[in-house]
């Protein structure tokens, strides 16, 4: 990987960054083996932070570990081997560059549509297929619990978009290699692995190895680290879910910083998006009588096109806000 200049990849000074927020008591943990509690706790977590962790989720640890090992087999290949793989536009193998508009990070990645899994290795593609299917089912279960917790009918009103055969689901494998000699090391700053942003889809389901680095931004602007847990999944509320709940659920701003320069971090993220032509607007059943929609109606196709015209940190929802 190429070393980035500090100007392209503004590092972060972590001192006094996460002691401001008074009410934050840690990342909400939701146990899916108790659905009645889970649905209410989930709604609260989505309203408070747009982020939570699920345990007892039913996805075999073996599957995640094996896919992670296969993923590392890919990233451990020589740079010239990896460069033979198609470069992202938007799908493929990428290094340092994120998206088409000049964003960079200390990261290399594989990004692909979940119905078009890379075939560089048979083992990889069969594990990735199995994993994406398992995580998509988990996404549907979570969206049904959310609908139930919000008391909206039918329960499948959100999950049907992920289970649709035309669902626009994306899968991303990120590798943040060790960087003991990164230039920002000298003044105690932390390099950025993946800059701050919200995810544009409905829901993102992330799993990482045991290396720290993920941070979320609380509503008061405080950044807090998310302690890694390779046995659990971290769930993000994405932009479309914020719109469909008319702002009740918060699309969570997050980023990855290189907190430990000696350890490699690997994450696997499934982004659940609806079919491209799906019209997105607040669900009638979440609205109070007389409540007005905060957003203009748009299709996922239109929103997605907008994301690719913007920079990572831009507030894409603001283009669709009314008034
Ligand atoms: C953020 C969430 C997903 O990783 C992603 C990213 C996409 C990309 O890497 O191609 C984007 C980014 C993400 C949002 C703004 C645009 C598009 C990079 C970028 C600068 C795959 C996605 O769907 O949106």
TrEMBL record:
<keyword id="KW-0223">Dioxygenase</keyword>
<comment type="pathway">
    <text>Plant hormone biosynthesis; gibberellin biosynthesis.</text>
</comment>
<dbReference type="GO" id="GO:0045487">
    <property type="term" value="P:gibberellin catabolic process"/>
</dbReference>
<dbReference type="GO" id="GO:0009416">
    <property type="term" value="P:response to light stimulus"/>
</dbReference>
<dbReference type="InterPro" id="IPR027443">
    <property type="entry name" value="IPNS-like_sf"/>
</dbReference>
<protein>
    <recommendedName>
        <fullName>gibberellin 2beta-dioxygenase</fullName>
        <ecNumber>1.14.11.13</ecNumber>
    </recommendedName>
</protein>
<dbReference type="InterPro" id="IPR005123">
    <property type="entry name" value="Oxoglu/Fe-dep_dioxygenase_dom"/>
</dbReference>
<comment type="function">
    <text>Catalyzes the 2-beta-hydroxylation of several biologically active gibberellins, leading to the homeostatic regulation of their endogenous level. Catabolism of gibberellins (GAs) plays a central role in plant development. Converts GA9/GA20 to GA51/GA29 and GA4/GA1 to GA34/GA8.</text>
</comment>
<dbReference type="Pfam" id="PF14226">
    <property type="entry name" value="DIOX_N"/>
</dbReference>
<dbReference type="GO" id="GO:0045543">
    <property type="term" value="F:gibberellin 2-beta-dioxygenase activity"/>
</dbReference>
<feature type="domain" description="Fe2OG dioxygenase">
    <location>
        <begin position="166"/>
        <end position="274"/>
    </location>
</feature>
<dbReference type="InterPro" id="IPR026992">
    <property type="entry name" value="DIOX_N"/>
</dbReference>
<keyword id="KW-0560">Oxidoreductase</keyword>
<comment type="similarity">
    <text>Belongs to the iron/ascorbate-dependent oxidoreductase family. GA2OX subfamily.</text>
</comment>
<dbReference type="InterPro" id="IPR044861">
    <property type="entry name" value="IPNS-like_FE2OG_OXY"/>
</dbReference>
<dbReference type="GO" id="GO:0046872">
    <property type="term" value="F:metal ion binding"/>
</dbReference>
<dbReference type="InterPro" id="IPR050231">
    <property type="entry name" value="Iron_ascorbate_oxido_reductase"/>
</dbReference>
<comment type="pathway">
    <text>Hormone biosynthesis.</text>
</comment>
<keyword id="KW-0408">Iron</keyword>
<keyword id="KW-0479">Metal-binding</keyword>
<dbReference type="Pfam" id="PF03171">
    <property type="entry name" value="2OG-FeII_Oxy"/>
</dbReference>
